Amino acid sequence: DPGVFTELIQTIGVKGAQVEELYALDYESLASLKPVFGLIFLFKWRAEKDERPVVENPPETLFFARQKINNACATQAILSILMNARDHIELGDELSQFYEFTKTFSADMRGDTIGNSEVMRTAHNSFARPDPFVMEEDKSRDDKDDEAFHFISYVPSKGTLYELDGLKKGPIIIGHYNENEDWLQKVVPIIQERVARYSQTEIKFNLLAVMGDQKIKYEKEIEELTKQDISDPTLIAQREDRLADLRECLNQQVELRAKWKEENIKRRHNYVPFLVNLIKVLAQKNELMPLIESAKNKL
């Protein structure tokens, strides 16, 4: 959920970035979101042989960490992009100190350090759904029915495109670009090929973009246009049209943030006490059993 990831980013102190879900995988759609710092591919994990070589000794400028914490691949995928976008966003005190502390560490040591970070662990755990019951494991359920999902990141760094997967020993080089090329043009065909491959047998996958904070982007452009000293009536009219569009986009971002905030509050809330009391009240009014029988008849 982009709202969860965006709040997670803000919780650990990062400024200037947000997450957006992608519904179209073409260059034009991605380019409209610039600046894009990295892409996250979510898919249903399955055992498969990957013979692509990994970079066992990546350059110091590239941040890569092994995943050492169970069920934290989403947080780690986002962290991989943020750390490699450190020249374009404000990492905040926690991540800045973390980078300086771990920049000479091995990928394994970085993974261990992530697990020991109180700020990151607290931020990650804050989005866990409340689980007031300890359920006995259903022995009748076949293990093959269990679904495990995994997140991997795609990032540009110093002319090279990398796939970062915390379950692998190192990053994988997937392409190159020069200073006159847009890395998004290079990475789109690679992800399209992977999506096509998964589409043949699986529909449960998703693509997210970690990009610049759109609210800040619109606010900055509005401020710059407002300060322009223009006397030509035609240019003034064009500016006003552009300002109107920007204000509409800004309002949409404000409404989106409010929606995300409300959804995240609901996500954290424990509804079990309410449901238990609702069932009690229905039983007291002799309305529970009729509802149960009605539900059975609809099955």
From TrEMBL:
**CDD domains linked:** Peptidase_C12_UCH37_BAP1
Q: Which organism is it from?
A: Acrasis kona
Signal peptide coordinates: none
Catalytic activity annotated for this protein? Thiol-dependent hydrolysis of ester, thioester, amide, peptide and isopeptide bonds formed by the C-terminal Gly of ubiquitin (a 76-residue protein attached to proteins as an intracellular targeting signal)
**Protein name as it appears in the record:** Ubiquitin carboxyl-terminal hydrolase
Every copy of the UCH catalytic domain together lies at 1-212
Q: Which InterPro entries match?
A: Papain-like_cys_pep_sf (IPR038765), Peptidase_C12_UCH (IPR001578), Peptidase_C12_UCH_sf (IPR036959), Ubiquitinyl_hydrolase_UCH37 (IPR017390), UCH_C (IPR041507)
Annotated active site residues, numbered on this chain, are 73 (nucleophile), 150 (proton donor)
EC number(s): the record gives 3.4.19.12
Q: Which UniProt keywords apply?
A: Hydrolase, Nucleus, Protease, Thiol protease, Ubl conjugation pathway
